[in-house]
Amino acid sequence: MSRVTARRRMRRISPTGEIQRPDTLAVEEPLEIRIDGQSLTVTMRTPGNDIDLVHGFLLSEAMIGSAADIVAARYCAGTDDQGHNTYNVLDVTLRTPVPVPTRAFPTTGACGLCGKTALDDVRTRTRFPLPNDGPAVDTRVLAAMPDSLRDRQSVFDATGGLHAAGLFTADGTALAVREDIGRHNAVDKVIGWALRENRVPAHDLVLIVSGRASFELVQKAVMAGIPMLGAVSAPSSLAVDLAADAGLTLVGFLRGDTMNVYSTPERIRTEPGRSALMA
């Protein structure tokens, strides 16, 4: 199996001078996903947890609803210049064959869909509508989750170049953390883990991501029935619109003891005595 890090030489320039030395980098390689031998998509990812990635991706695209929908997922033979298997082509056999879409995957901010069309698409495709209640999470517990996520980023420690996603219980217990060069891949990997562990719909879990909250990440959370998404950085406008439309609690700028709650704040328990200020 490919390693998740690689060494490359570089020149480091600083006020004290220049040095040349090897640097540790995150590996980025293509993964082609095939359905019954037919190519579905190619995603650039960090090798590792590819089976989880495929489960999460196919769930997000409404092509499966449970782990039982996948009969087999096998790496196809493919070799590099040295004759080693690259493990970069994964062929999935579905229990019930489905037409392979011809449009590009995944949906991104550059896909050309208008906001209304995108919102309607997610609403009609999800098999797991979010409950009105869901987990109630204390602000102190929620605020500690990004640090807990960061503590489990072993490859980031070595490279400084990976995103992370984690699934947590309402009391702050980390159940699964995955890293990847692509934030959407990291989310697919933890959702795929949940699917294979029979935790989907994940109505009792919280998804935490290390970067920003895009429409695509909110979409994946909604498709998996995850009622709360917390991001260290900012959300996009369409991400907030989708979260509000689906009843997902979206939290951005989750840093230290501060956070911005953009939608469905009822699931956030504030500390006793803390008052709300309205501008």
Could you write a compact summary of the structure shown?
The protein is 27% helix and 31% strand.
Strand and helix map with partners:
Layout (H helix, E strand, L loop, with lengths): L4 E10 L2 E10 L2 E7 L2 E8 L4 H11 L9 E6 L13 E6 L20 H11 L11 E2 H13 L2 H6 L3 E7 L4 E7 L2 H14 L8 E5 L5 H9 L4 E4 L5 H10 L2 E7 L2 E6 L4 E2 L10
Parallel strand pairs: 3-6, 7-14, 10-11, 11-12
Antiparallel strand pairs: 1-2, 3-4, 5-6, 8-9, 8-10, 12-13
**Number of strand segments:** 14
Beta-strand percentage? Answer: 25-35%
Which secondary-structure class do the elements indicate? Answer: alpha/beta
Question: Helical content, roughly?
Answer: 25-40%
Order of helices and strands: EEEEHEEHEHHEEHEHEHEEE
Shape, per Cα inertia axes: globular
Mean pLDDT across all amino acids: 87
Poorly predicted spans: 106-113, 275-279
Distance between the termini: 54 Å
How are the strands ordered across the major sheet? Answer: 9-8-10-11-12-13
State the helix count. 7
The main sheet comes to: 6 strands, mixed
What is the CA-atom radius of gyration, in angstroms?
A: 20 Å
Word description of this protein:
- There is one protein chain.
- With 279 residues, the chain is of the alpha/beta class.
- It is built from seven helices and 14 strands.
- It has helices at residues 50-60, 115-125, 139-151, 154-159, 183-196, 215-223, 237-246; strands at 5-14, 17-26, 29-35, 38-45, 70-75, 89-94, 137-138, 163-169, 174-180, 205-209, 228-231, 249-255, 258-263, 268-269.
- Strands 9-8-10-11-12-13 form a six-stranded mixed sheet, with helices on both faces. A four-stranded mixed sheet has the order 4-3-6-5, with helices on one face. Strands 1-2 form a two-stranded antiparallel ribbon.
- Helix 1 crosses helix 5, helix 1 (50-60) crosses helix 6 (215-223) and helix 2 (115-125) packs parallel to helix 7 (237-246).
- The longest helix is centred in the C-terminal third of the chain and has 14 residues, at 183-196.
- The N and C termini lie far apart (54 Å).
- Belongs to the FdhD family.
